[in-house]
Design a protein that fits this description.
Blueprint: H1 2-15, E1 25-31, H2 49-56, E2 59-61, E3 64-65, H3 71-80, H4 112-117, E4 122-128, E5 146-150, E6 165-170, E7 181-183, E8 189-192, E9 209-210, E10 213-214, H5 221-235, E11 241-246, E12 254-257, H6 258-263, H7 270-295, E13 302-308, H8 314-317, H9 333-336, E14 340-343, E15 352-354, E16 358-359, H10 363-370, H11 385-389, E17 399-404, E18 407-412, E19 415-419, E20 426-429, H12 445-459
Parallel strand pairs: 1-11, 1-13, 2-15, 3-16, 4-5, 4-11, 6-8
Antiparallel strand pairs: 2-14, 5-9, 6-12, 7-8, 9-10, 13-14, 17-18, 18-19, 19-20
Helix pairs in contact: 5-7
Length: 468
C-alpha cells in the first residue's frame, strides 16, 4: 500500500501545479482578414462548424474590436495589451519594409508571451508574425520559446508550382493584354485585373522558419500550421502553455487545395469558391486543435480565444463584413469589428451572445488573470472573466480609440465619430444605425464636440509614428 502511495505521489509531483488545475492553458487562434459576416455563427453562408462550436460552448461577442484595420498594428495591440499608437506602431509594413532596420514591435514593449513565460508557461508562436523581419524583432526574442512560421505580411500557401491547388492572382494585365478575368486551359490558374495591381511578392526574403532556420514546407500552410499546433499541444500537455496559432488564412494569395475546391463545386463564382475552400480548411484546422485538446483531457483546462486581426478586404477576397460598413484599411465598423469568441468550459458561460463592447486589448489582462499572473499597470484592456461570470449589465468598456495617420475614430457608448483622410468628423449612433449610413454631425453638434474632445485627450497620450 505504501508503495502505491509513493508511486502516486511521484506521478502527481511530476505533473506539478498544473495537475491541480491552478494554471490553465491559453490558446489564441487568430484568423487573417476574416470578415465579421463570414463564420456561420455570425450569419455566414459558408459552413464553419468548428468555429461555431467554440461559440456554442463559449461566449460570442457581437461588438468585439481590434485596434487597427490592418494586420501588423492590430497584432501589436493584441500582444501588448496597449494601443499601438502609444509606442509608434501605427502603420502596416509590407514587402521589403519588413526587412528595414527599426521596423517592428519596439523591444521596450512587453509581450503577452514574455509575461506568461515568466509565469511558468511554455510559449509558442505558429504561423504569421508580421511584427518585425530583422533579428532584434524575432519572436523568440519577444517571449516565444518556439516559432514555426514566417515573418512578413503574407506567404504563398504551397511552393511553386503550386501543385494540388487552384490559384487566383491579381494582375494588372491579362495574357491577351486585356482586362477582366483569365483562366488557364487546365483551369488551375486564374488572373484578375479587378484590383488594378499585381499580387505582392510575398515570398521574397520571407522563408518558412523553424526557430531561426529556413525549412522546406511542402504542405499547404494552413495544414502545416495546424499540424505544428497539434504537435506543440502534445509536447507540452504536462505543463501550462500559451499557444498563439496565427493562421495566414484567409489572407491572399488565394489558393484552394483540391479537396476543398471540390467541396464547393456548387459555388459558381470562382473567386468566392476559392475563398470558401480556404475558410473551410481554416475551420477544419480549428476543429483539429480543439479535438487534440479534448483527446488529451485538456479542453476544460484551456482558455481558447478566436478572432480575426481586422475586417475582410471584400473586393480582394470576397470576405464579407456584413452588416457593417467598410472593410480592411477603414475605421468604419467593417474594418475593426471582427468575429470574437472566448471558450473556457466550466468557467465561462456556454452559448452566450454578448453585445457589450470588448477589445483585443482586453485579452492580455484576461489571459494573465486566468494564469494568476501579475498584471502590468499600463495596459489599455480589462479582465473579461469577472464581467462574464458575474451578474453585470454595466458596460465592459466605455470607449475605444483609433488613429491611422489622417484617419481616426472613437466609439463611446453607442456613439462613434469617424474622420477619413483628415476630413471633417462624422457622427453615428451605432445602436440605431450600425451600418453607419446616417451622419448626425450636423444634427448633434454637442455630441460631436463631446466625442472629439475625448478623442483629442486620448490622442495627446500617443506618440508620433516611428515610420510611415
Amino acid at each position: 500500500m505504501k508503495r502505491i502511495v509513493v508511486i502516486l505521489s511521484c506521478l502527481l509531483g511530476a505533473a506539478g501545479v498544473f495537475a491541480a488545475g491552478q494554471k490553465p492553458n491559453i490558446v489564441f487562434i487568430l484568423a487573417d482578414d476574416l470578415g465579421y459576416g463570414e463564420p456561420g455563427c455570425y450569419g455566414g453562408d459558408i459552413p464553419t462548424p468548428h468555429i461555431d462550436a467554440l461559440a456554442r460552448n463559449g461566449v460570442r461577442f457581437t461588438s468585439g474590436y481590434v485596434t487597427a484595420p490592418f494586420c501588423a498594428a492590430s497584432r501589436a495591440g493584441l500582444l501588448t495589451g496597449r494601443y499601438q499608437t502609444r509606442f509608434g506602431f501605427e502603420f502596416n509594413p509590407i514587402g521589403a519594409r519588413n526587412t528595414e532596420p527599426g521596423i517592428g514591435l519596439p523591444p521596450s514593449e512587453r509581450t503577452l508571451a514574455l509575461a506568461l513565460r515568466e509565469a511558468g508557461y511554455a510559449t509558442g508562436l505558429i504561423g504569421k508574425w508580421h511584427l518585425g523581419g530583422t533579428p532584434p524583432f524575432h519572436p523568440q526574442r519577444r517571449g516565444f520559446d518556439e516559432f514555426f512560421g514566417f515573418l512578413h505580411e503574407g506567404h504563398y500557401y504551397v511552393p511553386v508550382p503550386w501543385r494540388g491547388h487552384v490559384t487566383w492572382l491579381r494582375r494588372k494585365t491579362l495574357p491577351d493584354g486585356g482586362q477582366g478575368r483569365w483562366r488557364s486551359p487546365d483551369g488551375r490558374m486564374i488572373w484578375s485585373t479587378h484590383m488594378g495591381h499585381n499580387e505582392p511578392e510575398y515570398d521574397a526574403d520571407n522563408p518558412i522558419l523553424r526557430s531561426g532556420q529556413p525549412v522546406h514546407e511542402p504542405a499547404n500552410l494552413t495544414e502545416a500550421f495546424t499540424r505544428e499546433a497539434e504537435s506543440f499541444i502534445e509536447q507540452h500537455r504536462g505543463q501550462p502553455f500559451f499557444l498563439f496559432l496565427s493562421y495566414n488564412a484567409v489572407h491572399s494569395p488565394m489558393q484552394a487545395r483540391d479537396d476543398y475546391w471540390r467541396r464547393f463545386a456548387k459555388i459558381e463564382d470562382i473567386h468566392r469558391r476559392i475563398f470558401a475552400a480556404m475558410l473551410a480548411q481554416l475551420d477544419d484546422g480549428v476543429g483539429r486543435v480543439t479535438a487534440r485538446l479534448r483527446s488529451l483531457g485538456l479542453e476544460e483546462r484551456t482558455l481558447i480565444v478566436f478572432l480575426s486581426d481586422n475586417g475582410g478586404p471584400t473586393r480582394e477576397l470576397t470576405s464579407s463584413n456584413r452588416p457593417w460598413r467598410g472593410g480592411k484599411g477603414e475605421l468604419y465598423e467593417g474594418g475593426v469589428r471582427v468575429p470574437f469568441i472566448l471558450q473556457w468550459k466550466g468557467r465561462l458561460p456556454a452559448g452566450r451572445v454578448e453585445p457589450r463592447m470588448v477589445s483585443s486589448l482586453d485579452l492580455f489582462p484576461t489571459a494573465l488573470a486566468a494564469a494568476n499572473a501579475p498584471t502590468p499597470a499600463k495596459l489599455d484592456g480589462v479582465n473579461l472573466i469577472p464581467r462574464l461570470t458575474q451578474p453585470d449589465e454595466h458596460p465592459i468598456r466605455s470607449e475605444h480609440f483609433w488613429r491611422v495617420g489622417g484617419n481616426a475614430a472613437l466609439r463611446r457608448g453607442d456613439w462613434k465619430i469617424v474622420r477619413m483622410r483628415n476630413g471633417p468628423w462624422q457622427l453615428y449612433h451605432l445602436a440605431s444605425d450600425g451600418s453607419e449610413s446616417q451622419d448626425l454631425a450636423a444634427q448633434q453638434p454637442d455630441k460631436l464636440r463631446e466625442l472629439e474632445t475625448v478623442w483629442r485627450s486620448l490622442n495627446a497620450e500617443m506618440i508620433e509614428p516611428l515610420w510611415r
